[in-house]
Amino acid sequence: MSMPPDAMICFALYSAAHAMQQAYRPLLDPLGLTYPQYLVLSALWSGQEPPTVGAIGRQLQLESSTLTPLLKRLEAIGLIRRTRDTADERQVRVHLTDDGRAMQARAAHVPDCILERTGMTPQALLALRDQVTALRDRLRATA
Amino acid sequence: MSMPPDAMICFALYSAAHAMQQAYRPLLDPLGLTYPQYLVLSALWSGQEPPTVGAIGRQLQLESSTLTPLLKRLEAIGLIRRTRDTADERQVRVHLTDDGRAMQARAAHVPDCILERTGMTPQALLALRDQVTALRDRLRATA
DNA sequence: CGGATATCAATCGCGCACGATATAATCGCG
DNA sequence: CGCGATTATATCGTGCGCGATTGATATCCG
Fold it and tell me: Does the C-beta of B66 come within 7 A of strand C?
């Protein structure tokens, strides 16, 4: 009558996302970073600086109530700076510090380690990524 | 040099899992349930009663530090009971109450609503589920 | 120009989620 | 039998993650 969690697509995503975080943990712990913090830094390393809090939120699909405390922690450990936009004082711009840029090199090995842990070819991973992303976008579209 | 979040398989899983939770929210809110609580109830509805806390944890891949407070909340709203196993008093058995069993009927429409929201055929979803589950298991295997 | 409206970040409360640790019960082995 | 090791759950501290709300700034429009 009722489906066991193992049979549900939602649980597959839920448990896979957690397993992925666990895979990152031993790589990020020595850097003093959490997984969401690493995602924010990845956004900063790869994008146009300095984005606003809202822009990061749209990219990572996170609310300001999640980002603001996280960004304060990244600022507290010296990896970013937060400054009010002079033109529009409602917005806060997020800048990498020198330490924040240096962290990119210190974390350069992380993607390779994760790739290896998946035991999959890059092509297979990209294909799966696109399927998962497509499902995510369909779920959000109707929202 | 650095990959944007959108290009990462980890972010695809991360954001898809969150989007899935958001899709469940309007369905579970009226029932007074959170998404992890719904997963625990799904395990109880579909399995052999009464499982121990540890058995639920293995099925959902959650620690006792997560489950214990969650189960206490389910007990507080009257959907389950927690009793010490008489044979092995270290273990706690989780029983559905009548209200907990009745909730299964009240939530019976949920899977169909989610399926519709995905806009995918059941076969395509099952195939994707198996791929995601296989990735999860590879990530956990090396752990 | 000025008040209504909209936008942006921050705050608050709650519920996960986990690592580390604690506590209690059971088991293994001499 | 008894004591050390193992196992099961619970507790504690920290960091997300979000809905609801707030406060401050900017925009729109009469």
Answer: yes
Between chains, do B139 and A132 touch, taking CB under 8 Å as contact? no
Identify which of A11, A44, A127, A132 has the alpha carbon closest to the alpha carbon of residue B12: A132
Contact B59 A19 (CB under 8 A): no
Query: What are the DSSP E strand ranges found in chain A?
Result: 80-84, 92-96
Residues 84-123 of B with CB under 8 A from A: 104, 111, 114, 117-120
- Which amino acid is residue B91, in one-letter code? Q
Taking contacts as CB-CB distances below 8 angstroms, the residues of chain A near B51 are none
ipTM here: 0.95
CA gap B69, B107 in Å, rounded: 22
Protein residue at shortest CA distance from C1' of C13: A65
Q: Where do the domains of chain B lie, and which CATH numbers do they carry?
A: 32-106 (1.10.10.10)
Q: What is the pLDDT of residues A13-50, one digit of tens each?
A: 999 999 999 999 999 999 999 999 999 999 999 999 89
Each residue of A86-139: pLDDT tens digit?
Answer: 999 999 999 999 999 999 999 999 999 999 999 999 999 999 999 999 999 999
Q: How far is B63 from chain A (nearest CA, A)?
A: 12
Does residue B120 sit in helix, strand or coil? coil
3-state secondary structure A36-75: HHHHHHHHHHHCCCCCEHHHHHHHHCCCHHHHHHHHHHHH
Q: What is the DSSP string of B6-52?
A: GG-HHHHHHHHHHHHHHHHHHHHGGGT--HHHHHHHHHHHHSPSSPB
Q: Which nucleotides of C are covered by protein (CB under 7 A)?
A: 7-13, 15-20, 24-27
Q: At A52, phi and psi to the nearest 5?
A: -85, 165
Q: Do B117 and A128 touch (CB under 8 A)?
A: no
At a CB cut-off of 8 Å and minimum separation 6, what does B113 contact?
Answer: B27
